[in-house]
Amino acid sequence: MAPPFDWWAKGGHKGTPVVVKMENPNWSMVELEAPSEDDFIIRNSPTDPRAKARGKNAKQLTWVLLLKAHRAAGCLTSIASTLGSLGPAFRRRVASRRTDTENASSFENRTVRIGFYTCIKLFLWLSLLLLGFEMAAYYKGWHHFVASGHQLKYIITTPFGVKDVFEWLYSHWVLIRVGLIAPPLQLLANVCIVLFLTQSLDRLILCLCCLWIRFKKIKPIPKEDAVAALENGFFPMVLVQIPMCNEKEVYQHSIAAMCKLEWPRSKILIQVLDDSDDSVTQLLIKEEVLKWKHEGANIVYQHREIRDGYKAGNLKSAMSCKYVKDYEYVAIFDADFQPSTDFLKRTIPHFKDNEDVGLVQARWSFVNKEENLLTRLQNINLSFHFEVEQQVNGVLINFFGFNGTAGVWRIKALEDSGGWLERTTVEDMDIAVRAHLQGWKFIFLNDVECQCELPESYEAYRKQQHRWHSGPMQLFRLCFPDIVHAKISVWKKFNLIFLFFLLRKLILPFYSFTLFCIILPMTMFIPEAELPAWVVCYVPATMSFLNVLPAPKSFPFIVPYLLFENTMSVTKFNAMISGLFQLGNAYEWVVTKKSGRSSEGDLVSLVEEDPKHQFQGSELSLDEIEANILQEQKVRKKKHNRIYRKELALAFLLLMASARSLLSAQGIHFYFLLFQGIAFLLVGLDLIGEQIRKMSERSCSPSTRGLGSDSTRYKMKLSCTDIANT
């Protein structure tokens, strides 16, 4: 009988084949070939099935252990490299001395920003003083006391003789906080807890409704005659609009996607609505439009010299063209959106024989959702928004907020609702509310996706969130009288006022910031006011779990998601206050910065694209465009990440509160404050949006990434051909 270890030396296979790829700076498992049946056969062994099973199990165990060892090594090296990179990044941020106040955009009012930051600094210095007080009292044994009703039994281990100044101050501070500070603080905490539970209940109900929809397999289905009409060649007239402004990184992707839509060219018109004030960007977009027009696309270019009303003004100007009256529907796409070729065929049929349907909205998907931690966390939020909020509201009440893009409107619904108005920075939500008040119904298609791009830097995401949370408050002020006097049911009025505006747009950022960033750290220094552990830990964890459900691959990021959402409550609360009280530049529109990410399909089509049409009739030479690109790259290299002062101040406030919680032996509160403080610290140092360059991206020349000019795309053909072919 051969020794059991002979199969190592005698078989055709020399161990389990493993393919490992190193992605600098981390090791990661890319592919592991599973053992074949031959690997499990014991060479030169008897036909005893038990012996074969023992050999098979031994080799299978070896393979599994090898797999786990590689995974563990990859995890450890990844963590080590991440921690090692934090130190140099921290030093770079501090050395640059660039804060959010230097050359800051006016999207945030200066008075509000400075006043808000001053209040946080006041809390910070006060907490530092109280922390010193409490630590001294702890080591002297003065921290023990019992409060019963209105009577305070203050226990001091030293006799009540002659007290020094510190003893006098601390004893009077205890009496003041018990009698004057703790009651209103506890009242405010109780109010926020009620709001928190109300909003959590609303989210739980939405999730249960979504589960019911999925269980019943409910989804909008167009009528058979509508689909048959398209098959028989009956295509309605469709207008496609692409509003853009100085977005040279993404304009080619969107224009190409619109020109490839499967719709008769005589029945579709593509409007490229350019608000760019950069002459080079204008010429590049004109050149792209001219190229597709030469290829037979029915496309026009429109440019406004004066950018009144921002996106709303741009769309309003486009709808005023005389030829619009010949069209029945209008599809709107932002400059970074790339719909599939059958987008119109999957959305337009829902309008036929449904004369009360005014909007068909598709969901978004993201080409860069795994680019860095910031994009992963955004993907969680938006997946919940589309999968749960939009889908449930669309199925149950036929109303939801228009997302501003990837949607098709019936032009008659736009006209009946008053058209595009320039009164807020959320013109999409504005037109949706007015259309709902006119009785129009909305349909949300969860199975129709449109690719787009997420902000990859914290600065861009912060500006976007400021607009998204300031605009609804502006709109609420303007629409409230119209909602009250509208001829709709009481339930629809309640849904608009309480659920749509107050609970989800005002109460959510209010209690998130007040409860977890102000009240919780204050209760550490004023222990007479308490927050239960279930408010601090269990309910937020449950809500985060529900939020991650629509994106199951994001479960490893559930804790960072919870901490980041509380961190973003600072920006959202500030924006909500600015919009509600119309402070400063709350009405200014800031275009979200794009990086021009492409899907693999785009890259392959780029390689296959014929370059002979490029630069025909361009007013700029190739050398001039390349010189402009090089100048842009020099500017980008000089850009530094900023330090965000409000977030840093709150980070130190929470970390000091966590230190104070140690004196009270409050375990859950300590861990929450500690990790929340670290989250604020990372965001304040702008480490949340650090770019992670992949090896496949590094294979391309640096000049090919994030730029949208024709010369850049031609260079990409030369530098990325091998990547696309693989």
Give a quick set of tags describing it.
726 residues, alpha/beta, eight-stranded mixed beta sheet, two-stranded antiparallel ribbon, 23 helices, disordered C terminus, membrane, Glycosyltransferase 2-like domain-containing protein, transferase, transmembrane, transmembrane helix
State the gist of this model.
With 726 residues, this protein is an alpha/beta fold. It contains 23 helices and twelve strands. Helix 3 runs parallel beside helix 19 and helix 4 packs across helix 10.
Describe it for me?
This protein is α/β, with parallel strands linked by helices. 56% of the residues lie in helices and 10% in strands. The protein is built from 23 helices and twelve strands. An eight-stranded mixed β-sheet has the order 7-6-5-8-11-10-12-9, with helices on both faces. The chain has a two-stranded antiparallel sheet with strand order 1-2. A hairpin with a 2-residue loop joins strand 3 (145-148) and strand 4. It is globular, with a radius of gyration of 30 Å. It is a multi-pass membrane protein.
SSE map:
Layout: H1 6-10, E1 18-23, E2 26-32, H2 49-96, H3 110-140, E3 145-148, E4 151-154, H4 165-216, H5 224-231, E5 238-244, H6 251-259, E6 268-274, H7 279-294, E7 299-303, H8 310-319, E8 329-332, E9 338-339, H9 343-347, E10 357-366, H10 373-396, E11 407-410, H11 411-416, H12 427-437, E12 441-452, H13 458-485, H14 490-525, H15 533-548, H16 558-580, H17 600-608, H18 622-637, H19 645-663, H20 667-684, H21 695-698, H22 710-719, H23 721-725
Parallel strand pairs: 5-6, 5-8, 6-7, 10-12
Antiparallel strand pairs: 1-2, 3-4, 8-11, 9-12, 10-11
